[in-house]
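Task card 7
Instruction: Convert sequence to structure tokens.
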Amino acid sequence: MTAIRTALEAFIPQIAERYESSVTHLFTKMVEAHGASLKGIFNSWTYARAYRNHVSIYVRTVEGAKVLNTELLAAGAQAYALGSVAAWEDKINLKVGELENADVSRLDGVSFNITGMRAGKKVQIVQQIIVNVSSQGKAFNQFPARTYVERKPVSEAAYRKMFS
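Output:
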């Protein structure tokens, strides 16, 4: 296991919680718009794709009403968080390679500071996690980042040249 992976795993519960919150919020809005049975949800311009691709897998019917299956949602959120952390780690490793003495700290709600050493130089990545929803209604993460070596901003190409 890499140092980056170990540091990122601390964020799995927060990512899972955000995912659960997102699905729950969407489901609540759908019920407000279409009633407890979600009648007409598949014809809704606002919610059809999100329901079909993001919410419906966590919904069951109880006495004619649609309800969230919280156990299934929790498992889905955990799987989503694990996948997001793996994608995040891949993005970091692709961008900067393996760092020694890696440390990840939260700057604010969505921004992170990742520091470490590579070939005796201090490397810092200031990265955000952005949650977007595709046109098919599927949630996904994006990881825009800014890389610094010895406190100076460097492009991805310059970084690769520096450490190749």
